[in-house]
User: Which sequence fits this backbone?
């Protein structure tokens, strides 16, 4: 190792990344009595302020309940009650409790989940290091991996460990370091664009999706005072195409709400409407978790939930390996997670096609538009169809 001063230390598990996947995993490992060190590239403030997802599904909520962390994560977080599809201005509601058969999710903004997990980890004496630069896993294909990094003062560190958890998102170093021949990547591009806007305007009464000939739009709560909006746009759209006035005009048109108040826009971003899945989610002693292993479109709200679900499976498997010397659950980690991942990819694809093709005829033509309308109508006329949808909303 080179650098100012080198420190060599050891732990059971090095967790790379402190997003929903890494922080969930680290907290569950602490509950399981398995030692870990979390290395995060960004500052604490940056991590705590990053706003993305907003719904923790029933399966995700149960993970925290089962690990004794419900008070930390779920306290005060309201349950989903209704879900609205607004079709050409006509309001249609689904009762979440009925269609999920009593398994509603919780409205938990991602930054609240992250902030609470982060605080809990630190309060319980967890080892979480921010501003860790040049994090690099070594030797994960062998029996004795290490992870090196440089801290904010420029000191280099080397951590010897038994396992590495790559929780560093889609652009992280964990997956990038795996030899290309060891992983297969499955990708799909939906061929549509989404503009997302985070704004200080009152949230809707219920999560709302609008289906119109002008394109898809959605309005979701993000806490008591903020909203996240989505607008279907051209796949190659740029910020110059979408000045604030156009955003508010299109939202009022598509949501059929001429009185929709506008407000300060905190974030304006284009979302890649793509899916990626790597198989297997493991290379030797490196385990890929959450977005590091799979990306799903925000349609269906499953990205954060899959990160939590992966972390749960991995924490149980690491507990068995470290505390009981049983590596069987680790051997099953990838297949167990991928089963859920593909179910949710299918849910997201089904919903994306339905909500876009039912509105904008130019996407897939008039025949497919009527098929998509029939699919949508069935949610409101058939109990079994609504419950199949609700089952996936709950997390399957
Ligand atoms: P994250 O959240 O990307 O966290 C990865 C962490 O790793 C750190 N990192 C590194 N650390 C050390 N060294 C390196 N070299 C590193 N490289 C990266 C990063 O700084 C970061 O802290 O991945 P994770 O934990 O797997 O969590 C995944 C979720 O964040 C993601 O799936 C969701 O946000 C997706 N998503 C949504 N999911 C939902 O369930 N419901 C939603 O409604 C929803 N809406 C969204 C979303 C994602 C969005 N973006 C990203 C386009 C809305 C948006 C706008």
Assistant:
């Amino acid at each position: 190792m080179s650098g100012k001063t080198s420190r060599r230390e050891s732990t059971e598990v090095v967790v790379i990344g402190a997003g929903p996947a890494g922080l969930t995993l680290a907290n569950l490992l602490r509950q399981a009595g398995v030692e870990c060190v979390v290395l995060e590239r960004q500052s604490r403030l940056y991590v705590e302020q990053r706003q993305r997802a907003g719904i923790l599904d029933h399966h995700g909520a149960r993970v925290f309940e089962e690990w004794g962390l419900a008070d930390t994560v779920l306290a005060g977080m309201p349950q989903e009650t209704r879900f609205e599809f607004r079709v050409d201005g006509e309001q249609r509601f689904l009762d979440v409790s009925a269609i999920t058969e009593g398994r509603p999710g919780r409205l938990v903004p991602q930054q609240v989940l992250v902030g609470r997990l982060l605080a809990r980890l630190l309060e319980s004496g967890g080892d979480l290091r921010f501003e860790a630069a040049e994090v690099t896993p070594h030797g994960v294909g062998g029996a004795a991996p290490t992870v090196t990094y440089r801290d904010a003062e420029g000191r280099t560190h080397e951590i010897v460990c038994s396992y590495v958890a790559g929780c560093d998102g889609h652009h992280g170093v964990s997956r990038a370091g795996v030899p290309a021949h060891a992983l297969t990547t499955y990708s799909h591009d939906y061929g549509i664009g989404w503009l997302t806007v985070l704004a200080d305007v009152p949230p809707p009464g219920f999560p709302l999706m609008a289906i119109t000939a002008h394109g898809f739009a959605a309005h979701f709560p993000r806490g008591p005072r903020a909203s996240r909006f989505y607008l279907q746009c051209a796949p190659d759209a740029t910020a110059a195409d979408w000045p604030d006035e156009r955003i508010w005009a299109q939202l009022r048109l598509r949501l059929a709400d001429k009185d929709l108040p506008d407000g300060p826009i905190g974030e304006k971003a284009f979302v890649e409407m793509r899916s990626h899945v790597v198989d297997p989610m493991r290379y030797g002693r490196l385990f890929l978790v959450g977005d590091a292993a799979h990306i799903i479109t925000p349609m269906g709200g499953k990205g954060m939930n899959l990160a939590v679900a992966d972390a749960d499976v991995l924490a149980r498997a690491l507990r068995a390996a470290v505390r009981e010397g049983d590596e069987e659950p680790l051997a099953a980690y990838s297949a167990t997670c991928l089963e859920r991942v593909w179910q949710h990819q299918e849910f997201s694809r089904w919903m994306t096609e339905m909500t876009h093709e039912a509105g904008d005829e130019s996407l897939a033509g008039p025949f497919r538009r009527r098929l998509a309308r029939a699919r949508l109508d069935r949610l409101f006329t058939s109990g079994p169809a609504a419950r199949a949808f609700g089952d996936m909303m709950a997390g399957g």
